[in-house]
Amino acid sequence: MDELQESALGTQEYWDNRYKEEIANFEDHGDPGEIWFGEDTVERTIEWIKKQESISKNSKILDIGCGNGMFLVELFTQGYVNSFGMDYSEDAIELAKSIAQKRNFKIEYSVCNILEGLEGQFDVIHDKGTYDAISLNANIKEHRVTYLKNIFKGLTDTGLFIITSCNWTKNELVEQFTDYFELVNEIPSPQFKFGGQVGNTVTSVIYRKR
User: Fold this and answer.
1) Rounded CA gap, 113 and 151, in Å?
2) Alpha-carbon distance 85 to 93, whole Å?
3) How far is Cα 60 from Cα 38, in angstroms, rounded to an integer?
4) pTM metric for this prediction
């Protein structure tokens, strides 16, 4: 399996600078900033969550690499009120808190790096783009193991891990995660055809502990 090329997107400096700009835009215009992978990706994930009997409105849900927190904002509007967001960028957390406060939503956010561990256990852990960013870091092989171990520890025994990636296919994620997780389901996403091959714009898959 080929690794991805190292990129500035895999550095904290890039994201700190990005969210400084988004804080300024939010303060000036009320714009919460970009929703990575698009609003339709968020909608598909939330619709899947709503259909799961094992996920209640009080289930403890964690969004890692939450950025501006809009995934949790949308989740909160659907009645999922036991939600938490974490990001290693202080600027991202500042923005997420400001957006939630403006809407009077009680969502708990904290500055935390998934590679440094998680506190507590969660019924659902959601990742939209964080694993992708880690995969663009020079230390991907080392960081991948740390990432998976910490996700594993942070899930309850019956918990679900939802990950959306634009860099990895379902088969590649299954291969990379096989020591810790088994595939439960896949959330369908739009397909494209190029050079006779059919692919997905993003991959959204659900895992549980082995």
Assistant:
1) 12
2) 8
3) 24
4) 0.87
26, 43, 47, 82 from 111: Cα distances, Å: 20, 25, 28, 18
Banded pLDDT at 186 (limits 50, 70, 90): very high
2-39 per-position pLDDT tens digit:
676 666 665 777 777 787 888 887 887 777 777 767 78
For residue 142, the tally of other CB atoms under 10 A from its CB is 11
Closest-CA residue to 177 (of 138, 117, 137, 134):
134
How confident is the model at residue 193, as a pLDDT?
54
d(CA 91, CA 147): 22
- All structural domains of the chain, each given as residue ranges with its CATH number in brackets, are 8-209 (3.40.50.150)
Strand order in the sheet with 61-64: 108-111, 83-87, 61-64, 122-128, 155-165, 203-209, 181-187
Structure-token match 């939630």, residue found:
100
Distance CA 32, CA 26 (A): 6
Q: Which secondary structure element, helix H or strand E, spans residue 153, and what is its range?
A: helix 140-154
What are the pLDDT digits (tens) for 156-171? 999 999 999 999 999 9
Of 2, 1, 9, residue with least CA distance to 137 = 9
How many C-beta atoms lie closer than 10 Å to residue 57's C-beta?
Answer: 11
CA angle 118, 45, 192 (to 5 degrees): 120
Burial class (CB in 10 A: 0-12, 13-18, 19+), 43: exposed
